[in-house]
Inverse folding.
């Protein structure tokens, strides 16, 4: 049963620790599962998406034991056949589809929600062209063994997750392997995170213009212990909360992070906020005035809903663009963000690839449909700072997908809410 939550007041001040980067943790778990021996992975916070990867790796023969500070990962024995339930995790599906094929496992993938409707055909086609048999065009989807090395080709403007999936699989193949992109890569920072994790696990690529070539001799090797850094994507909600409502700090964030969503700092600065970074802690204090801004989200699409909330707090007309792929997320995230803002009384107008927001005035509050989308729910909770009345979010339990402790951390920052 879906839960509804009434937001009485939004988060205002205090400090909260960042949970582990979901993007990095997915990759580290998969890399560790492909190494001989045992790897200790240190991180804070689990989510439904991460548990989907843990469950799927277990089905592929990996032993994963949770510990107080993270988990230990040890590859045990490859099965001939496996059934992987990836839930609603696009990363789990798109990363493990080529990995299972490269492992030689006859694997069936199950899932739910909108995941089965999200694009997968370009990746499946590349797997088929290199010897893997694909049965089905949407979930449930079956991939057969037989993936061969060679030159893979993908468009760079569909999903960086396709690129990551192939990069994760290539070290398991015999022979030379490379990946060429036929168009410029969007969300390139996510592939940078992939390459960084792979490097820590002994796998490197020569990178040319739109090409990744596996370095001969690269193979998965355990680093023994791997620490996952804090997540900029989920921290962005708290940082914007500070910008529009008070004084908020998030600890455990790396200034040198390769994560795409570190770009929230750029958006805050454009809006007239001056984030302070010291000792892996980011502090954001609301300025006297927030200014309208224009922002390209093509490299950081997950920031879109919360940046639209920030735009609603800014005086003037803001434009967010470059997010056409947001139509295929857990919800049509452009449409659901527009609906969320309008339900609260904001002037927001969806475009083909983004949003125009006329901000700077007090909103009324109201009832939000969470649309089964964790980022809509969290953005709606933060938007309470702009509203004269309460905000009621239907389907607030969607936060479990990426940040189950969101409302606990929200409360620690003096945000008040309760379940209905």
């Amino acid at each position: 049963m879906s839960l509804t939550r009434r937001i009485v007041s939004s988060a205002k001040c205090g400090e909260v620790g960042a949970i582990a980067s979901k993007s990095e943790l997915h990759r580290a778990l998969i890399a560790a599962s492909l190494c001989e021996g045992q790897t200790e992975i240190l991180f804070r916070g689990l989510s439904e998406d991460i548990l989907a990867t843990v469950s799927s790796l277990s089905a592929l023969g990996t032993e994963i034991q949770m510990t107080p500070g993270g988990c230990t990962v040890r590859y045990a024995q490859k099965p001939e056949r496996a059934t992987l339930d990836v839930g609603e995790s696009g990363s789990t599906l798109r990363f493990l589809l080529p990995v299972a094929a490269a492992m030689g496992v006859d694997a069936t993938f199950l899932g739910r929600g909108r995941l089965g409707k999200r694009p997968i055909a370009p990746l499946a086609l590349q797997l088929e062209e290199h010897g893997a048999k694909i049965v089905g065009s949407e979930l449930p989807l079956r991939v057969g063994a037989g993936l061969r090395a060679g030159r893979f080709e993908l468009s760079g403007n569909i999903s960086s997750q396709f690129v990551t999936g192939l990069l994760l699989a290539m070290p398991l193949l015999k022979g030379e392997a490379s990946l060429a992109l036929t168009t410029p890569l969007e969300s390139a920072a996510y592939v940078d995170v992939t390459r960084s994790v792979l490097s820590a696990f002994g796998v490197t690529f020569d990178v040319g213009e739109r090409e990744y070539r596996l370095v001969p001799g690269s193979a998965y090797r355990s680093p023994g212990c791997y620490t996952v850094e804090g997540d900029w994507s989920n921290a962005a909600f708290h940082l914007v909360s500070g910008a529009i409502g008070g004084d908020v700090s998030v600890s455990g964030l790396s200034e040198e992070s390769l994560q795409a969503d570190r770009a929230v700092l750029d958006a805050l600065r454009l809006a007239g906020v001056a984030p302070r970074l010291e000792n892996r802690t980011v502090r954001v204090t609301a300025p006297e005035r927030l200014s309208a801004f224009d922002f390209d989200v093509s490299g950081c699409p997950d920031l879109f809903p919360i940046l639209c909330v920030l735009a609603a707090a800014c005086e003037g007309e803001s434009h967010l663009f470059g997010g056409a792929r947001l139509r295929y997320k857990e919800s049509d995230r452009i449409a659901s963000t527009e609906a969320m803002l309008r339900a609260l009384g904001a002037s927001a107008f969806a475009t083909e690839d983004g949003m125009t927001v006329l901000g700077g005035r007090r909103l009324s509050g109201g009832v939000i449909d969470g649309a089964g989308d964790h980022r809509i729910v969290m953005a709606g909770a933060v938007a309470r700072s702009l509203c004269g009345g309460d905000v009621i979010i239907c389907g607030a339990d969607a936060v479990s997908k990426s940040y189950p402790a969101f409302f606990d951390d929200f409360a620690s920052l003096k945000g008040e809410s309760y379940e209905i």
